[in-house]
Amino acid sequence: MSWKVANLCAERKFGSPVRKQIIMFLADKASDDGSGIWCSKGTVQRHTELGESTVKRTITEFLREGILVETGRRPCKNGYTVIYRIVLGVVNGLETISEPDDEPEFSTGSTADGVPHGPGTGSALDGVPGPERTPNHPKTIQKPPTRASAREAEDQDFEKAWSAYPEDRRRNKDTCRQHFERAIEDGTTAEEFINAVRAYATETEGYTRSKVCFSDNWFRESRWQRFVEEAREAQIGAAELEGKHFRQLAGWVRERHGLCKHISRAQAGELLSLGLVSEPELRRAEVAW
């Protein structure tokens, strides 16, 4: 769970209670950069108690609007589950939920007559004043990182991408930074971008230097996109292949096949977590986990 993503989503308007409920559930499953959301639409439906068609339609809308992006797939008992990422730049651009400016200020703690006036939480017996605000006051909720800290993290990511580019072909650093930031806002993760730069550097390592693109042109023309798409396709292919392999292992377990002796403890544990087999089935097949 990431309180950063959850608080960011909580402070934005998504257009309807249903959309807000679904995005908050997804935010609860996300890492601090919005990635790693691995839960099926059926899981979302069960936990939110919304209709299946409503969940599917809303997630499709989020994908179309760029609020969500698909980053890969993981095997499950029904084939595979899509991995999503909440695009924080898009969410940050949504309309905020404004707080009223005329909020009354209440004093807290004890008073001279020993009777607290207003919703104070301090003690009237020992004369020790309580906290300035009650624990559930909106202003006590932790806020997402400031723009300054977010900018600092983004600068660090850009520096990694910049240093990974072939040194003798780096040019116009500020221009490259602008295109890097635009790519992140459009849904590419910093890790994907950095890996794309590294892949290009590896690919062109033996090239004549004149054949290696200058960095400002490479960033501006989105030549990194090919490497990102190839990496995503490879991840999906690997997930599908892994899913096929685990389904085969599950078949061995159910049939008590002689090849079960080659199933490792780690594989058996993964079969259980994916719901492909049960503990009694593993016992009957004499597979340890």
What keywords describe this structure?
289 residues, three-stranded antiparallel β-sheet, 12 helices, flat
Structure description:
Helices cover 50% and strands 7% of the residues. It has twelve helices and three strands. Residues 102-107 have low confidence and may be disordered. The chain has 289 residues and is mostly helical. It has three domains: 3-92, Arc Repressor Mutant, subunit A (Orthogonal Bundle); 147-222, no CATH class; 229-284, no CATH class. The chain has helices spanning 3-10, 17-28, 41-48, 52-65, 88-92, 147-164, 173-185, 190-203, 215-220, 224-255, 265-273, 279-284; strands spanning 37-38, 68-76, 79-86.
Measured as a percent range, the helix fraction is: 40-55%
CATH superfamily of the largest domain: Winged helix-like DNA-binding domain superfamily/Winged helix DNA-binding domain
Q: In this structure, how is the largest beta sheet organized?
A: 3 strands, antiparallel
Count of spatially separate domains? 3
Shape: flat
Mean pLDDT: 81
Side by side, the strands of the main sheet go 1-3-2
Q: If helices are DSSP runs of H or I spanning 4 or more residues, what is the number of helices?
A: 12
What is the CATH domain class of the largest domain?
A: Mainly Alpha
Judged by helices, strands and strand pairing, the structural class is mainly alpha
Segments where pLDDT lies below 50 for 5+ residues?
102-107
How many beta-strand runs? Answer: 3
Distance between the termini: 27 Å
Question: What's the CATH topology label of the largest domain?
Answer: Arc Repressor Mutant, subunit A
CATH architecture of the largest domain: Orthogonal Bundle
- H/E order of the elements? HHEHHEEHHHHHHHH
